[in-house]
Every structure is written in C-alpha cells, then in structure tokens.
Amino acid sequence: MERKFDRDWELTIGPDTVRLFIEKAKVISAAINEDYADGQEHEVEYDGDGGDLHLHEGLAEEESENLLEEELRELIDDLNVDEAAELVALAWIGRGDYEGSEWTEAVAAARERGNRRTSKYLLGMPMLGDWLEEGLESIGA
C-alpha cells in the first residue's frame, strides 16, 4: 500500500522516532488484547468462606505494561509542536481520515487541535501502532 508521490516538504519528526513509537504502541496494544483473551485478569474466585480471592497472576506484566505506556506518554509529551502535529497527522492518515497526498492539510488540522493532551489523545487510539505504520507508508517515509 505504499504510495510514492512528489512532496515539497520534509518531516520534522524522524521516521525512526515514529518507528520506535510504533513498536511501543504495538506492544502495549498486544498486551491489552492478551489480557482480555485470557479472561483471567478480572476474574474473582470464591473460597467458600464468603471472601473473595483475586487472581494476580499478571501483576508483574501489568506493572511493566504501565511503565511502557508511561514511557511512550513521556516520549510523546517531549515532542515539540511540529513533531506532535505530524505524529497526529500520521495517525489520521493511517486511520484513513486523510490520504498521504493530503499531508499538509492533515498537519494543519493537527496543529489546529493543539499540542495539549496529545499523548492522551494518541494513546487512546486502540490501533495507534498500526495507524502510524500505515501513515508512514502512505507518505512514503
């Protein structure tokens, strides 16, 4: 799905930086999906004495997932305004809101939405890693 076209702009955010975000986002997304697939994350066992016994088999993984998400959040928060707008634009293009050829329009719209809460907005996207990857491919980066 790689669409190459002539472009008169350069990325402010490095494609390797975006690829790092893609890797982290995919790990976070995979971990969330596995938790729900297991069915054990939120199950409660009753021991017959009226008390409940919560299963905490995934507690260590949960903590590391939260650390990974926090790390990605901090990396996104450290981006400057232009980089953050481009990251949002890449996600939008990957999601299909814009075409790769509409890069400048997507970045302008992302700048209009502002830079506050960018990490919260992006980390709220369930397929962030996939959409960023698609976005990079669509713009030929």
Short description:
62% of the residues lie in helices and 4% in strands.
Features:
globular; DUF3775 domain-containing protein; 6 helices; 141 residues; DUF3775; single chain; disordered N terminus; 2 strands; two-stranded antiparallel sheet; mainly alpha
Binned strand content: under 5%
Mean pLDDT: 79
Helicity range: 55-70%
Oligomer designation: single chain
Protein name: DUF3775 domain-containing protein
InterPro entries: DUF3775
Pfam family, one: DUF3775
Structure description:
- By secondary structure, the protein is mainly alpha-helical.
- It has one domain (15-139).
- The protein is 62% helix and 4% strand.
- The chain is built from six helices and two strands, in the order αββααααα.
- Strands 1-2 form a two-stranded antiparallel ribbon.
- A hairpin with a 5-residue loop joins strand 1 and strand 2.
- The longest helix has 24 residues, at 15-38.
- It starts with 14 loop residues before the first helix and ends with a helix.
- Residues 1-5 and 35-47 have low confidence and may be disordered.
- This is DUF3775 domain-containing protein.
- Pfam families: DUF3775.
Any chance you could write out the topology, listing elements then pairs?
Elements (H helix, E strand, L loop, with lengths): L14 H24 L5 E3 L5 E3 L4 H19 L3 H15 L7 H11 L4 H6 L4 H12 L2
Antiparallel strand pairs: 1-2
Helix pairs in contact: 1-2, 1-6, 3-4, 3-6
